[in-house]
Fold this protein.
Amino acid sequence: MSIALVNPDGLPEVDAYRQVAVATGSRMVFLAGQVAWDEDGKVVGEGDLAAQIEQCYVNVGAALAGVGASFADVAKMTLYVVGWSPEKMPSLMDGIGRAAAKLGFAVPGAPGTLIGVAALDIPEHLVEVEAIAVLD
């Protein structure tokens, strides 16, 4: 495996992710932001943040698998959430937990950044997830 996830001394331990990813592979994979579309391009979970984050992670998993990678190869994730407020954290974590159970990846995962945004590509999308992976 080309990614080691760590929490260095002096930084808080976060339940959802590790603070640092050390990558030793030689191929970098940059995924486009994934939204809550199914494979036919239909919106999944309209109005439901947990359902949309789950679908985003399913799409990230499919994109990774398409190039021979998995969540174990992810070095960094970025989540963009429309109208973010701390009250949305339980729904966000619920969606991530459901995706982890469905896809078999570990939580805590790779380092991540959550960014609140005013809007995404269409009004129905509440979240977008992008990832960077490193392969041997």
User: Anything to note?
Assistant: The beta strands are 3-6, 20-23, 27-30, 74-82, 112-117, 127-135. The chain is about 25% helix and 25% strand. The first strand starts at residue 3 and ends at 6. The mean pLDDT is 95.
